[in-house]
Amino acid sequence: MAQYHQTHFDASFGALSDATDAAFWSTRACGRFDHSPCREVHMTLTGMKKHVGVLEQAGLVSTEKVGRVRTCKLGLRGLEEEAAWIERYRQLWAARFDELDIVCRGIETAGERKWT
Protein backbone atom coordinates (compact mmCIF):
# COMPACT_ATOMS: atom_id res chain seq x y z
CA MET A 1 0.00 0.00 0.00
CA ALA A 2 1.31 3.46 -0.87
CA GLN A 3 2.35 5.74 1.94
CA TYR A 4 1.24 9.36 1.71
CA HIS A 5 2.85 12.20 3.60
CA GLN A 6 -0.14 14.51 3.43
CA THR A 7 -0.80 14.98 7.11
CA HIS A 8 -3.09 17.96 6.49
CA PHE A 9 -5.48 15.51 4.81
CA ASP A 10 -5.44 13.44 7.98
CA ALA A 11 -6.13 16.55 10.05
CA SER A 12 -8.90 17.79 7.74
CA PHE A 13 -10.68 14.47 7.38
CA GLY A 14 -10.14 13.71 11.06
CA ALA A 15 -11.70 17.02 12.09
CA LEU A 16 -14.61 16.65 9.71
CA SER A 17 -15.24 13.02 10.65
CA ASP A 18 -16.19 14.11 14.17
CA ALA A 19 -19.85 15.08 14.07
CA THR A 20 -19.43 17.96 16.54
CA ASP A 21 -16.42 19.41 14.74
CA ALA A 22 -18.13 19.11 11.37
CA ALA A 23 -21.34 20.70 12.66
CA PHE A 24 -19.42 23.56 14.23
CA TRP A 25 -17.38 24.12 11.07
CA SER A 26 -20.40 24.12 8.82
CA THR A 27 -22.68 26.29 10.95
CA ARG A 28 -20.59 28.48 13.22
CA ALA A 29 -17.30 29.09 11.51
CA CYS A 30 -18.29 32.54 10.29
CA GLY A 31 -18.85 34.72 13.29
CA ARG A 32 -18.24 35.47 16.90
CA PHE A 33 -18.90 33.18 19.75
CA ASP A 34 -18.62 33.26 23.50
CA HIS A 35 -20.73 31.07 25.77
CA SER A 36 -23.96 31.18 23.75
CA PRO A 37 -23.11 28.55 21.07
CA CYS A 38 -21.96 26.25 23.86
CA ARG A 39 -25.39 26.39 25.46
CA GLU A 40 -27.11 25.67 22.13
CA VAL A 41 -25.15 22.44 21.63
CA HIS A 42 -25.13 21.56 25.36
CA MET A 43 -21.35 21.83 25.61
CA THR A 44 -19.06 23.50 28.09
CA LEU A 45 -16.78 26.30 26.95
CA THR A 46 -13.81 23.98 27.59
CA GLY A 47 -15.37 21.34 25.34
CA MET A 48 -16.07 23.92 22.64
CA LYS A 49 -12.46 25.15 22.82
CA LYS A 50 -11.26 21.58 22.27
CA HIS A 51 -13.39 21.17 19.15
CA VAL A 52 -12.37 24.57 17.81
CA GLY A 53 -8.73 23.66 18.50
CA VAL A 54 -9.03 20.53 16.35
CA LEU A 55 -10.50 22.57 13.51
CA GLU A 56 -7.85 25.24 13.96
CA GLN A 57 -5.02 22.69 13.81
CA ALA A 58 -6.49 21.39 10.56
CA GLY A 59 -6.46 24.94 9.19
CA LEU A 60 -10.23 24.95 8.74
CA VAL A 61 -10.87 27.84 11.14
CA SER A 62 -8.86 30.60 12.73
CA THR A 63 -9.61 32.30 16.01
CA GLU A 64 -8.82 35.62 17.62
CA LYS A 65 -9.54 36.58 21.20
CA VAL A 66 -10.51 40.16 21.93
CA GLY A 67 -11.37 40.70 25.56
CA ARG A 68 -13.76 37.96 26.64
CA VAL A 69 -15.01 37.20 23.15
CA ARG A 70 -13.29 34.78 20.82
CA THR A 71 -13.98 35.37 17.15
CA CYS A 72 -13.88 32.33 14.92
CA LYS A 73 -13.87 32.41 11.14
CA LEU A 74 -13.05 30.13 8.24
CA GLY A 75 -9.36 29.40 8.02
CA LEU A 76 -7.09 30.51 5.22
CA ARG A 77 -6.93 27.01 3.80
CA GLY A 78 -10.09 25.67 2.22
CA LEU A 79 -10.81 22.12 1.21
CA GLU A 80 -9.77 22.46 -2.45
CA GLU A 81 -6.91 19.96 -2.15
CA GLU A 82 -9.12 17.45 -0.38
CA ALA A 83 -11.85 17.90 -2.99
CA ALA A 84 -9.31 17.35 -5.80
CA TRP A 85 -8.03 14.19 -4.05
CA ILE A 86 -11.57 12.86 -3.70
CA GLU A 87 -12.32 13.66 -7.35
CA ARG A 88 -9.21 11.76 -8.54
CA TYR A 89 -10.35 8.66 -6.67
CA ARG A 90 -13.95 9.10 -7.80
CA GLN A 91 -12.77 9.10 -11.42
CA LEU A 92 -10.51 6.11 -10.80
CA TRP A 93 -13.30 4.06 -9.25
CA ALA A 94 -15.83 5.14 -11.89
CA ALA A 95 -13.46 3.87 -14.59
CA ARG A 96 -12.91 0.60 -12.72
CA PHE A 97 -16.63 0.04 -12.28
CA ASP A 98 -17.20 0.77 -15.99
CA GLU A 99 -14.61 -1.90 -16.83
CA LEU A 100 -16.22 -4.32 -14.38
CA ASP A 101 -19.60 -3.67 -16.00
CA ILE A 102 -18.11 -4.57 -19.41
CA VAL A 103 -16.67 -7.81 -18.00
CA CYS A 104 -19.98 -8.71 -16.33
CA ARG A 105 -21.89 -8.07 -19.54
CA GLY A 106 -19.41 -10.31 -21.40
CA ILE A 107 -19.89 -13.10 -18.87
CA GLU A 108 -23.65 -12.64 -19.00
CA THR A 109 -23.65 -12.78 -22.81
CA ALA A 110 -21.40 -15.85 -22.84
CA GLY A 111 -23.72 -17.57 -20.36
CA GLU A 112 -26.77 -16.81 -22.49
CA ARG A 113 -25.08 -18.28 -25.57
CA LYS A 114 -24.13 -21.37 -23.63
CA TRP A 115 -27.71 -22.14 -22.58
CA THR A 116 -29.51 -21.36 -25.84
Describe the overall structure.
The protein has 116 residues and is α+β, with helices and mostly antiparallel strands. The protein has 5 helices and 3 strands; from the N terminus they run ααβααββα. It has helices at residues 7-17, 19-28, 36-40, 45-57, 80-115; strands spanning 31-33, 61-66, 69-74. The chain has a 3-stranded antiparallel β-sheet, with helices on one face. The radius of gyration is 23 Å and the shape is elongated. The two termini are 45 Å apart. The relative contact order is 0.12.
Provide the fold topology.
Blueprint: H1 7-17, H2 19-28, E1 31-33, H3 36-40, H4 45-57, E2 61-66, E3 69-74, H5 80-115
Antiparallel strand pairs: 1-3, 2-3
Helix pairs in contact: 1-4, 2-4
Question: Helicity range of the residues?
Answer: 55-70%
Low-confidence regions: none
Count of runs of 4 or more consecutive helical residues? 5
Largest sheet: 3 strands, antiparallel
Mean pLDDT across residues:
77
Write the element-wise H/E pattern from the N-terminal end onward: HHEHHEEH
Q: How far apart lie the N and C ends?
A: 45 Å
Counting helices, strands and paired strands, the structural category is alpha+beta
Structure summary, number of beta strands: 3
Radius of gyration: 23 Å
**Shape category:** elongated
Strand order of the largest sheet: 1-3-2
Residues in β-strands, percent: 5-15%
